[in-house]
């Protein structure tokens, strides 16, 4: 099913999304990769606040290239999500609900998604220039020393994604494999 989503990703909205849905996200998302996630989780462990309010937030696992003159941002393709698996449950425990990336997730992340009603969106790898066209505003908000992995706030419009894992733990990758095997058994 195709859905146009206006962020933030509330619990109610997350529960309405299903593995396999095509979505077009609009609103505020944040960027971070493994170095940024590590820093945020270390800050949380010390009892510090994050540089943004994680409540109902969606985090895009991306390290965008520098913007060329006249552009908001450079190429912004997804990073392999498994690199954030060690940090995703902690981020969800403080309110972050949506994750955008590519590739499979560990069972511990799926369990946290079920517990905190998270959603994992898949972006198409290799389509960074196309995805960047959906980004209307980019603002550095923390960790400038991390370069491409710095924490940014992005305003996006109709960013095309797929629901890979929904808040009930349904996984499009597994569903697709099962359908393929079933179709080729007959």
Description of the molecule:
By secondary structure, the protein is α/β, with parallel strands linked by helices. It has six helices and seven strands, in the order E-H-E-H-E-H-E-H-E-H-E-E-H. The chain has helices spanning 11-15, 34-45, 88-93, 107-116, 128-132, 172-185; strands spanning 2-6, 22-31, 58-60, 98-101, 119-122, 135-142, 151-165. A five-stranded mixed β-barrel has the order 2-3-4-5-7. Helix 2 links the parallel strand 2 and strand 3 (58-60). The longest helix has 14 residues, at 172-185. The radius of gyration is 16 Å and the shape is globular.
Backbone shape: globular
Q: What is the total tally of β strands?
A: 7
In whole angstroms, how far apart are the ends?
A: 27 Å
**SSE arrangement, N to C:** EHEHEHEHEHEEH
Widest sheet: strand ordering: 2-3-4-5-7
Oligomer: single chain
Radius of gyration: 16 Å
Q: Tell me the number of helical segments per DSSP (H or I, 4 or more residues long).
A: 6
> Largest sheet at a glance?
5 strands, mixed, barrel
Estimated structural class = alpha/beta
The share of residues in extended strands comes to: 25-35%
Helix content: 25-40%
Mean pLDDT: 94
Stretches with pLDDT under 50, minimum 5 residues: none
């Amino acid at each position: 099913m195709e859905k146009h989503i206006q962020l933030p990703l509330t619990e109610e909205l997350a529960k309405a999304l299903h593995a396999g849905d095509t979505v077009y996200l609009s609103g505020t998302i944040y960027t971070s990769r493994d170095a940024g996630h590590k820093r945020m989780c270390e800050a949380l462990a010390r009892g510090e606040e994050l540089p943004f309010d994680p409540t109902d937030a969606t985090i895009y696992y991306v390290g965008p290239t520098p913007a060329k003159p006249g552009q908001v941002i450079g190429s912004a393709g997804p990073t392999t999500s498994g690199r954030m698996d060690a940090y995703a449950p902690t981020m969800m425990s403080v309110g972050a609900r949506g994750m955008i990336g590519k590739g499979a997730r560990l069972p511990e992340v799926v369990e946290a998604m079920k517990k905190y009603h998270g959603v994992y969106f898949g972006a198409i790898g290799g389509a960074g220039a196309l995805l960047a066209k959906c980004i209307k505003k980019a603002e550095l908000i923390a960790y400038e020393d991390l370069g491409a992995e710095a924490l940014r706030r992005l305003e996006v419009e109709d960013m095309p994604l797929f629901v890979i894992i929904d808040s009930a733990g349904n996984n499009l990758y597994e569903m697709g494999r099962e359908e393929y095997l079933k179709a080729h058994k007959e």
